[in-house]
Design brief:
Elements: E1 3-6, H1 9-20, E2 26-29, H2 32-41, E3 46-50, H3 55-68, E4 73-78, H4 83-91, E5 96-99, H5 104-116, E6 127-128, H6 140-145, H7 152-164, E7 171-174, H8 181-191, E8 198-202, H9 208-216, E9 217-218, E10 230-231, H10 233-236, E11 241-245, H11 252-264, E12 266-268, E13 275-277, E14 281-286, H12 290-295, H13 301-307, E15 310-313, H14 324-339, E16 345-346, H15 348-356, H16 362-376, E17 382-383, H17 390-394, H18 402-410, H19 416-434, H20 439-445, H21 450-459
Parallel strand pairs: 1-2, 1-3, 3-4, 4-5, 5-6, 7-14, 7-15, 8-11, 11-14, 16-17
Antiparallel strand pairs: 9-10, 12-13
Helix pairs in contact: 1-5, 9-11, 14-16, 19-20, 20-21
Length: 464
């Protein structure tokens, strides 16, 4: 026998059959003690081992195998391992590490490579990412890129993405600041195939002159400072996807040019006369309701109807708390990879604090909190209260979100009834703040039950 397969029996037996089709013989075991016996009594040129989820265990596993088979080339099959960790393992004698998902034919290929060389440890990359088949659209690598929420609202949103993603529909994405509108746009792009360009433009910070240049490009000398000709976003996104974030902030005149480009699929550069054919899928995002902006005369109605072939609304993080732990785990993994750390997770006290927090900055705020916490947490430790921002610990419930402030400030009484409601709203907010937003205590002080308090908050559209 020249190959030893260590791992779950059904998968290992499937791999063993594929190897035998190439006249390669192998032993199979799912028991590490049995593997030790086999290595003591046989010489294996290659060992293929499915490693446990915890990265620290991978080091112990490699040392264990090397102790029994010091001259064998060892291949790890890992569910979720950081690249820096895999590189470290290769330096310590690992032949290569395949990340799930992987195809049987990929494993067979690298087994053959390992058989050819028992000494050249650099022949194979530290982490090999096999090509995806068409059936692997929702692969593990993609799930590492995105968080697939489990809350009802998250599942509804994901179903919408899967429905409209493969089409050429124009899509409007609504969501508060920090909810991940560009991430949803990228998911739509990936669902469409993701083979061509994805170009993102933040319209929120563009003046009229800059917007025209950024979207359509300009010719040399078109305006002061135009020292070179420039391709615009439409041209760069040709045959791909153009994502316009905060599209509602575009100047009204630029909206006219945008409508023409979408309708005629042609653009003109600033300062140019030549028409350029473009074919792009348009995805836009806004934290304001574009239909309301149309009513106010701030957004072209014809452009709105061109864009509004499909709508997706991203729920704020405070309305999908079931997904919080998933996001925390995701951002810890990202933090570990980016910072080359080994933070084990988050302790119960820190997790409880985050679960009680309203996250006015949504997912972006959570990402920043966890990234900072990963930096400050020693390796092989859990994130604790001590590394969370001090203002979050002292004031775990932000007083009001921006939207809620606007509701309170713009609530101008027009009748005696509304005046009473205004006074009631201010009283509720005052009491909530005084008890650090503990709703049970607030209800007691207000001499109402908790359900009545929730109903009143809902009436005033307050999500505190």
């Amino acid at each position: 026998m020249s190959i030893l397969l260590i791992g779950e029996n059904r998968f290992s037996q499937h791999l063993q059959k594929s190897l035998s089709n190439q006249n390669l013989t192998s032993d199979v075991t799912s028991c590490i003690k049995k593997a030790a016996e086999l290595m003591q009594n046989n010489f294996y040129k290659v060992i293929v081992c499915t490693v446990p989820y915890m990265e620290n265990d991978s080091e112990k596993m490699l040392d264990y195998l090397k102790n029994y088979a010091p001259t064998s080339n060892i291949i790890f099959l890992a569910e979720d391992m950081r690249i820096c960790k895999a590189i470290e393992l290769v330096k310590n004698g690992l032949f290569t590490c395949l990340q799930k998902p992987f195809l049987i034919e990929d494993i067979v290929k690298y087994v053959n490579e390992a058989l050819k060389s028992n000494s050249d440890k650099k022949a194979i990359p530290a982490v090999t990412k096999p090509e995806k088949s068409n059936a692997q659209v929702q692969s593990k690598m993609e799930l590492n890129k995105y968080v697939r929420g489990k809350s009802k609202k998250a599942m509804e949103m994901l179903n919408q993405i899967e429905l409209v993603g493969p089409t050429n529909f124009s899509v409007i994405i609504y969501g508060e600041t920090g909810t991940g509108k560009e991430s949803v746009a990228e998911r739509l792009y990936d669902a469409h195939g993701g083979d061509n360009a994805f170009v993102a433009v933040d319209c929120g910070c563009l003046s009229r002159e800059l917007a025209a240049s950024e979207l359509f490009g300009h010719e040399k000398g078109a305006f002061t400072g135009a020292l070179h000709a420039k391709k615009g976003a439409f041209e760069r996104a040709h045959n791909g996807t153009l994502f316009l974030d905060e599209v509602g902030n575009l100047d009204y005149e630029v909206q006219t040019y945008l409508l023409r480009a979408i309708q005629e699929r042609k653009i003109k550069k600033v300062g140019g006369d030549k028409e350029i054919a473009v074919n792009v899928r348009i995805i836009v995002a806004s934290n304001e309701n574009l239909a309301e902006k149309v009513k106010k005369g701030e957004f072209r109605e014809d452009l709105y109807h061109r864009l509004n072939e499909f709508e997706i609304t991203i729920p704020p993080l405070r309305e999908r708390k079931e997904d919080l732990s998933l996001f925390i785990k995701h951002f810890i993994n990202r933090g570990n990879a980016d910072l080359e750390k080994n933070v084990l997770g988050i302790d119960n006290d820190a997790l409880k604090l985050l679960k009680d927090y309203n996250f006015p900055g949504n997912i972006r705020e959570l990402k920043n909190i966890i990234r900072r916490a990963c930096l400050m947490t020693p390796d092989n430790h859990f994130i604790s209260l001590e590394v969370l921002p001090l203002d979050l610990i002292e004031n775990p419930h932000p007083i009001l979100t921006k939207r809620e402030n606007e509701i309170a400030e713009t609530f101008v009484p027009t009748s005696i009834k509304e005046h009473v409601e205004k006074v009631e709203l201010n009283s509720i907010l005052t009491v909530l703040e005084s008890v650090n937003f503990n709703k049970s205590k607030a209800a007691t002080l207000l001499n109402i039950d908790r359900k009545t308090l929730y109903n009143k908050l809902k009436k005033f559209q307050m999500a505190v």
